[in-house]
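Researcher: Last one for today. Full complex below.
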Amino acid sequence: MKILLMGNPNVGKSVFFNRLTGANVIESNYPGTTVDYTKGYMRIEGEDVEIIDVPGAFSLEPKDKAEEVAAKMLRENRDATVVCVIDASKVERGLYLALEIMEEGYPLVIALNMWDVAEDKNIQIDVARLKEILGVPVVHTVAISGEGFRELVSKIKETVPVEMDKIIKRAGGEA
Amino acid sequence: MKLNVDERWNLIEKISKKTVTFGKYQHTLKDAVGELTVKPLTGIPIAVAILYGFWSIFGSFAGTLCTDGFFVKIFDGHFLPFMQKVFTGLPKWLYYIFVGDPLADNCFEAFGVLTSGLFLAIGVVLPAIFIFYLMLALLEDIGYMPRLAVLIDTVLHKIGLHGYAIVPTILGLGCNVPAVTATRILETRKQRFIAMTIMAIFIPCGAQLGIMEEVIPDTIGLVLLYLITGYFIFGFILNKMLPGRSPEILIDVPPYQMPTRRNVVRKLRMRITSFFKVAIPFVLLGCALVNVLYLAGVIEWLGNVLAPVFIGWFGVPKETVGPLIAAFLRKDLAVAQLSAIEMTKYQMIMAVVLVSIYFPCVATFAMMLREGWRELLGALATLVVTVFLYGGLMHLIGIVLGVA
Amino acid sequence: MQTSNYTSTERRSGVNKNKFGRVYFGILGVVTLFFGIMDLVATLRGESITWGILEIPGDIFPGGWGGLIVLFAGLFYLAGIRNFFQIHQFSKVVMGSILVWIMAGCDIFAWITESIPGGEEGPWLNPWGNFLGTFAPPYTPAIFLLPFSLVVIYFIYQRRRT
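Model: Here's the assembly. Have a good evening.
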């Protein structure tokens, strides 16, 4: 089993990676810290799982070299499960990437990271509702302190690919 | 089923309407202070102050406390005499390579692999690298770098880059090797090429800065001024000459954060470890190579052959050919070697600038090759032209001012 | 506006604080600005100026460069005193103090690094007397400004409460 850690630049993917694998990749508070991918391993329920820290991307149509690497990593790992890290204070642009990945047919788990920053900015997200509409697990996390990690890991094996039309139906249900 | 861009944004809007509520956003003092650091009128003075703090702490810690306070004493007073005594029995050439000049009373002049080599690596460069990376890690984790990028955006557009190019440039002040990889955050090949080339040519690394602080404290300001000026002049020229786009970007400014000790310590440890792995072997190897070349007479021969270029075009003594060879392996080593050569103040400035802009060190070279051989060849061509033009120009300035 | 939530006494005390803050940081701003200008003058003349226990360095680093920052700090203070309690104004006063802290912090750090080693001929560590001697006057302008700049912390604390 393989896990790809993806998301927009500077949402804390490298912090996730270090937390999950115990590895050491450079983390910084600015976008573009990771421009190349890094591999690491963790154990989930007794199985060795390969995790790849993918450079930050806004979409799968690459605009810079880091995004190129990201799109290529996704293409080359058709059997992977994607953990999409989203900045909870900038949900929309994170969802854009997440939807693109789901359209490609990858199973996905969403980590709403920097939950604390969103709270500071008075942004509230209805996690249960989001989970229901998207049909994939959504976990809120604070990567720096490790909040929400246990739940995230437990959800990785549960997720399955979701069809777009189902999401559209659920999102458009009452609107 | 796949969506197009508009359909996707529509869907996202629907989803976010149902799940996200934006409460009233209150400006906190943190936000207001943060805004001051981004607006040009207030941000530039603040950046000047931060730079001052960086430089002051760098000099106090690495120069005053570590090198002058303890390491010079340890190496000159105890280690050098000890080595000179222990290795007395060695054949002359071996003694010369490993211990150096038997009459030297300090580690800047002895120039043996185990005397000056170790002194430079551990006594001068290590403290410099340590304090540089510590402060860099703090600035990075607080989140100051993107603000700096916003501030300098307009200026960097003039040389075909945008604000974000400041990130690889500042990383380059620590070590050019990771900085080459960091240029990948730029969008087009043109931008990457410009950023990589002028960084490799004009940005001195932390090791070199540490040595310069130590051996030419009075003139380091002028040397840096020459380098920064060159950075912009040649960036400007490259931008005009090269085809390709330099797109505008929106810089994402993350919130200020308290750095966590765990992350700062880990980053520092990783970067110091890679310094030990890459730099120390090269410093020692460089020392050995230069000593062997001296013994074999190669350097003297090269010096004589190149003398017209050195004296006529650049206005530096022909002895600088030795340090220039060492500069290919390690710039810090080369600057230290220069300090042992008899020169006027002007010649010293000239020689140090030459060592800086001439060929990137071998590790940077290897990294650039990884980014593509065409880029590397282009960078090398630029470099040769730059060294001759800029070196000649500086000599001319010296002649006009009457100091050359 | 938030003021409407205050009781009348609170508002009055807020206004008093406001006035006190304006006068205080106005004076501090002028003094800071003056120090900054003197520093630049000293740099242009190329020699340091000594008044009693105050010493203004005359070189480019730390002198001129540092003087520029002290000057900026003074300007920040003066720019922030109008509508002192309004957050965007108050933040400028805070920034003025932060600049003074950067300067003073660097000076103090430089002392510490000078005071520990025993010098070229001396022992490894400075003996106690010499160690303390490093901290004796004269002092740079930033060190004089430091205690007065700390008053801003009181105002930050005040704001949190209201």
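Chain A touches chain B through 47 residues (CB under 8 Å). The mean pLDDT of chain A is 87.
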